[in-house]
Input
Amino acid sequence: MTEKSENPRGSGVAVPDFPDQLGRTGHFTCGVPRRFTVSPDGRRVLFVRGSAGDDPAGRLWLYESGRERLLADPAVLGEDPEDVPEEERVRRERAREFSSGVVAYATDAEARLAVFALGGRLWSVATDGGAPRRIPSAGPAVDPRPSPDGRWIAYVTGGALHVVAADGRADRRLAGPEGPTVVYGLAEHAAAESMGRSRGHWWSPASDALLVARVDDAPVRRWYVSDAADPARPPREVAYPVAGTANAEVSLHILRLDGGRTEVALPASADEESHCPGEWTDRTFEYVASAGWDGLGPLVRVQTRDQRTAVLLAVDPSDGSTSELHTEHDPVWVELVPGVPGRTASGTAVTSFTADDDRRGLLVGDARSPAGLHVREVLATVGERVCFSAGEDPTEVHVWCHEPASGFVRLSEGPGVHSASAGGDTVVLDSRTESGQRVTVLEGGTEAGRIAVLAEEPAVRPRPRRLTLGERRLRSQLFLPSWHQPGSGPLPVLLSPYGGPQMQLVVRARMWWSCVSQWFAEQGFAVLVTDGRGTSGRGREWERSIHGDRLGPALRDQIDALHAAAERCPDLDPGAVAIRGWSYGGYLAAGAVLHHPEVFHAAVAGAPPTDRRLYDTHWEERFLGHPRVSPEAYRRSSLVPYAHLLTRPLLLVHGVADDNVFFAHTLRLSRALLAADRPHRVLPLSGAGHGVTERSQVSSLLRTEAAFLKESLNL
Output
């Protein structure tokens, strides 16, 4: 099936039906292997993947001796992949997990037993053969995890942490909620949404105890999410800590299989003398940023409410006492880098440092990562080997490893965004490049095989022109119509940024969003994508430059990139400029037409956080402080107070079931626009959360956006 470009300036060439493909393939995630686990001996690799490029149901696979073998198929097990308990639905939403079937699993220490949940039912499968086995559980099972020795399985149901023998016998509750607001073994909203901690329980290496989070949401403000298209369904209650309000109370406990229980003695607050002062100071350790249990004992990292101090603690499991291993202070905020700080099997410290060029380096003991690298994440620690991701150019991410004998060595080759999993002498290298994605199994640094990527090839192939623009050397990509001839006439410009923290769009890899940008180009636009201040990969000051003002610097970078690109490419028409985006990108799009109508002539804003006071504590207070102490920062960074400035066409799009950026954001902006007599359009997406996944909504939304932008620019 094809569709034709309606652009009167274009050639009217036929373009394949890309919007339908985007929805059908789950943004090209179907058929892509992920969630790799490598056994300690390096012989077995487990992963999740669908059966084809349009199959959203994940299956559990094993790669061994150069061959793939299917371990668990939801269809064969007779499970409905769409049947998901509420606790699991929330966990998936926080993890941005939009597929079905087997979406997560866990293994024992040797990767010989894997467990997973389907529709709340608990399953296990041995990797050495045999069919999956249904394990009886006390209720719908969430986040099941086997003990390292494979004898037990821990899982959460009804807010209680249970343990059952791997043969299905002797199920018992280790800890249960003392009230309706208490949950054991799962992460609270702020941790899962904003800190990167998605877990709430961790086994001891001896398989005789667990480190468990107890979460009490009683202090947290309640929100209620409903879908007007389904009035028979009652509203869903969400404990959501908005900026300036109370967080959940989180404590940690050592729960032993023999029934013993010890609370971890977490510190109450940071030392006043060493804590960096600020306009707003709160030294209380409200956040459990990360936790785990390695061969040397439990580890916990806590962070203050104002985020300017973070401490890594070693826990004595016998009495719950703690000792400081590493403390970090920052006058703005301590960045939570995944896997850092940590330690190797021998106890060698793995920490980060700020280099002279302001980039984040890695310290393994006394060994420093090479100059010019900006470290993104510690991916795995296997014995004394530390694997991490880092890059010299912000548009590329590579996999590096450090071992005492060989020092720092880069494993990935060629431009792209690379990641890895490791075990024994095996590294599974997941590489996204400009030509697509490949997964390579390295043994001893040499390619030993590949795991198949079954994703469909996009009907539209991105053709980005890579640019570095303006005095701030903004990394950008320019997508032009394939049929456009230089000098043949001006092209309307469409900016399509995200432009916010912890995400980059401008990378040397074929991502789904670059395919979308090329599709819009084929509709007759010159599409410009720019990563401005606040995005990842360019150093500490670059990330912190939006502190106190989440909108101004980001918008200025988009405008500067537009002007610089127009100078570089005279075919861009500065008299016809639109902007589109989702989440933070939607926030930028709406802010652009409100504050700079002289530059932007139309906008599509998807799921925009229009009132910064309505976003969660850990995320928003990081950038703007406390709303009672810095009210002007929140006003300056919000959109609702400036609704009266709108003079350009604006389409607001929002999922009504969104429990990350609530639909209230769009409704409040729309109400303010109506009060100011400012015409605009609102497109509510029934049943959609923060990510739009329903096939027809995905495809129709792209066409609706294109039609609105063409109409608004009189194309």
